[in-house]
Amino acid sequence: MRGVVTTPLQIAIDGPAASGKTTVARKLAARLHVLYLDTGAMYRALAFEALHTRTDADNEPALLHLCHDRAVRIALDAASPLGFRVFAGDQELDEQTLQSNEVTAIVSTIAKHPGVREAMVAEQRRIAGAGPVVMAGRDIGTVVLPSARVKIFLTASVAARVERRLAQYQASGVDVSTHQLSEEIEERDRLDRNRTVSPLVPAADAHEIDSSGMTADQVLDKICAIVEASR
After folding, report:
1. Sheet containing strand 91-93, strands side by side
2. Which of 9, 40, 101, 106 places its Cα 20 to 30 Å from the Cα of 2?
3. pLDDT for 175-191, tens place per residue?
């Protein structure tokens, strides 16, 4: 008699820019002792490479060629502050590089290309298939891991997200104004919601959480209760 094949625990956390996905997903993975992956880091790595090689962010064939020549890859590393390390080719990219203003300005354009997303999703699914994972992004529950046991759609007001992203940038040594940041987040929202491929929408079975007036630990406790109830 064949044994029953069980799917590793998969928790998908989606939401708009600066909604707290990264912080909460990282804390959740640590509490559950499972792997954590922020898929946005992969798109940011490709955006960095596009800038570095002067590749047009609207030129999908050139970006796919860049993907092949300077493949974006993730190395899972529990000793890393993120829980993983991001490489473009042989070059490791730190968080300050990935969160730079220049990268942020083009990452949505990079991410809108169907071929680019297909390549990224294949790698993300490969990682998820290796074991339990908390994965954060913008289309995890709808596209990358549609069969995830738990799906969370985390959002917050623009004001709350600006405050959080500003603190994140300051901690990384990146200088940006509040006005500029607000405009960038609103534009990112517009691009994410309206892109043809994998637009930012909650999965039909996602638990929606507005974290505007909540601390990261309060959001974490609420998600942990949802995970526990799903067992």
Report:
1. 72-76, 84-88, 91-93
2. 9
3. 788 898 899 889 888 88
